[in-house]
């Protein structure tokens, strides 16, 4: 929804603008990260991690826990 529509009074909104505002508000309550964008460098890092997993690289969860001193 545009900033312009968000800055309107409810009485000045169209039905569809109000519905969209309510919809977005619900999404934000359910998922606080709704609408946020990933940093491009972080996104590339995630993609590389997925490729490493597909190649069978990396360590198991148990190995990671042991390395971090977790039970």
Describe the structure.
With 71 residues, the chain is mostly helical. Helix content is 61%, strand content 0%. It has helices spanning 3-6, 15-30, 40-54, 61-68.
Notable traits:
single chain; 71 residues; mainly alpha; 2 domains; 4 helices
Query: How many individual domains?
Result: 2
- SSE string: HHHH
Q: Overall pLDDT, averaged?
A: 88
Distance between the termini: 46 Å
Helix content: 55-70%
* Strand-pairing-aware structural class: mainly alpha
Brief characterization of the structure:
The chain is mainly alpha-helical and 71 residues long. It has helices at 3-6, 15-30, 40-54, 61-68.
Set down the secondary structure blueprint.
Blueprint (H helix, E strand, L loop, with lengths): L2 H4 L8 H16 L9 H15 L6 H8 L3
């Amino acid at each position: 929804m545009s900033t312009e529509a968000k800055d309107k009074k409810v009485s000045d909104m169209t039905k569809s603008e109000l519905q969209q505002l309510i919809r977005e508000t619900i999404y934000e309550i359910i998922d606080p990260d709704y609408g946020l964008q990933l940093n491009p460098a972080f996104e590339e890092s995630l993609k590389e991690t997925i490729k490493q997993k597909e190649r069978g690289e990396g360590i198991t969860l148990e190995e990671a826990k042991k390395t971090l001193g977790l039970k």
